[in-house]
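User: I'm writing a short methods note and want a consistent example. For SAM-dependent methyltransferase, I'll paste the sequence; you return only the structure tokens, no commentary, since I'll be parsing the reply automatically.
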Amino acid sequence: MLNAPLSASSTELVINVLTMVLNEGKPLDRAYSHHFSGLKLAPAEQARITAVAGDILRRLNLYCFLADIKSSEIERLGTQLLNAWHMFHGLELPKMQYALKVEQTDFDQRLMEAKQQGALFDGCPEWLDELGQTQIGDKWPAERAALATPPKRYLRTNLLKGTREELIKTLAKEGVQTKVVETVDTAVEVMSDSALFRTEAFKNGLFEQQDAGSQLVATAVDAKPGMRVVDACAGAGGKTLSIAAQMQGKGRLLAMDVEQWKLDSLKQRARRAAAHNIETRIIASSKTIKRLKLTADRVLLDVPCSGLGVLKRNPDAKWRDTPERLPVLVQLQKDILRSYSRMVKVDGILIYATCSIMPQENREQVDLFLANNPHFVFLDDENISVAESGFDGFYLARMQRTAEG
Ligand SMILES: C[S@@+](CC[C@H](N)C(=O)[O-])C[C@H]1O[C@@H](n2cnc3c(N)ncnc32)[C@H](O)[C@@H]1O
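Assistant:
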């Protein structure tokens, strides 16, 4: 992960970020922007800090166990945690003032104990481990271990502006090293610690940062030029922009969400990407959906979900979430499927997707929907496994409407 210890000032930043996330309940990206603003950190140092803070959050219970502290004590005992983190990774200790030490013999004993406990070693809270076991059984330990690894950085080539090979060459000229992802046509993996959003290539809309698994979901929409397509839970448009490129700017792409600020951000991204066939629309009530009855060739429902497939990238979520949230989300997904599927026209295709790896939010939702909606037939589905793909975890299913119903 690192080949040298963090500097004293960087350890302090890591402790401050962790404190903001764990004690104040702030999302990790907000904590980064708060603590990095005005600092002018070199991109490589910023990358080291985010790598360490992210890794600590992915295995928070393990590092706290090794340091013999509670997560609520990080503000006070953070130096002890950072020392344990460096010891775990076989690094020299950082040169922090007044740092609290961890005894090597205690550390070794605790590490031996932790290695006997899979969930603890993989940084998994108890509630999540139980859920994973119940939902995916034998496959869970591999997914759990994969979710404890650092996420890779992927870009999606904006095909409206050029090919993947052209993007790789342009980025190389700006010092960004990338490599092709063989299994995803639009994806490249970033190999250097570059500040991507400061590049001319980004400003000119040649790429978006997007996980390769998310790119696969968007590809499954298989939108064609001239079609009418609805992305009904579009958010800030990660998948909308990819669909716009599939449509080569021809046809009508309606991006909807219940949050206007997300659609505003989508509009900005669409301008940069030269994706001119996107219209945004807020979902104000069920009437917004009813008016679009039987009109769309493709409807993507990238529904709100537990996000349990993307914990590598959002490790703070598992320390904030509770198992009680899941049934609420499952009900919302059911309602969205039932109501929004009305927009699909006869012979049109409905694509249901989540960034979860739990069948309760995935295939079980699809089976229930099909049982209650005989005018849809199942085409195919795909579980994008974190362990098998190395990407974030996603699910997608495609269903076709055969009659008005
Ligand atoms: C998984 S996110 C979508 C991510 C987005 N498609 C992307 O690729 O970047 C789910 C989105 O659903 C939205 N949402 C929540 N409730 C909704 C509802 N009842 N109808 C439509 N969208 C909803 C959320 O605001 C959120 O943006």
